[in-house]
């Protein structure tokens, strides 16, 4: 038996916000817009949304203070604004950080939760959530997860509940045209890691595998182009489509060891989420070759690669980063990784020794 849940209504394509008609009217009369400090203003997404809201006669208030890897403090501040303003729904515009923050903000607008209960529930229904991705990577526009930094445990942690699936998402690839090459690489590899990890997960289903394979097709064909200075709209459309599909995959399967280990590299070493995932992927795939050889061969076929060495060279070309960890760091990061659900979802006997070896592989 398997279950599939995807309650988000998705609009995809250029100018999809303006073409969505009265869609947002059913959510209320006043919205809280949640963004980072700059990018939503630069890429046109904030303007597109506010103009549409004004056309519909929907009032809005802006919270534009979301940082990369949003904090508990930030989402609480935004929720306080939303409650004070009496907003009816929340719109997250940006990459994964503003969208994840918006989900948790919507939850905090209707739930009284201390910092521990924030990650565990129980929850009552949040305000309706709308998302507008402006990068092609996280898939947060179609998932039930919001990731925050949690200083109480010293790493990133997920708020995970079907209640925070967005009600509506608008995926317009045109908003990614101003994204710089480094962010384009990082987010595309993040999306690829979602597709691969979901495909390899113990929780994979025949239905999630369909989306994973399709996502890999649309992402893989452009892997050799990502280090270029500019990408056409058609390529950016493929990348966003692949990212959305990969998000739909992890909404069913969750992520695995790559994400569980990558959180520490982001929290302590400052690597972006996508880059942390990317540099871990080659060693992860070497483990998967031992336990899921048939699926690994299918990945190489879809990506147009000859095997693990070819994949490793491709990732290394895009992400030449190395990370050297002290013995104390290895012990700490491993201890933080082992209790995560991402470990139990991994189709491999993950021991502390396996995690340490995978971290040590990043030195080269």
Automatic annotation (TrEMBL):
Keywords: Oxidoreductase. Residues 7-173 form the Alcohol dehydrogenase iron-type/glycerol dehydrogenase GldA domain. The keyword Ribosomal protein does not apply. Pfam families: ADH_Fe_C, Fe-ADH. Residues 184-308 form the Fe-containing alcohol dehydrogenase-like C-terminal domain. The keyword Protein transport does not apply. It comes from the Bacteria. This is Iron-containing alcohol dehydrogenase.
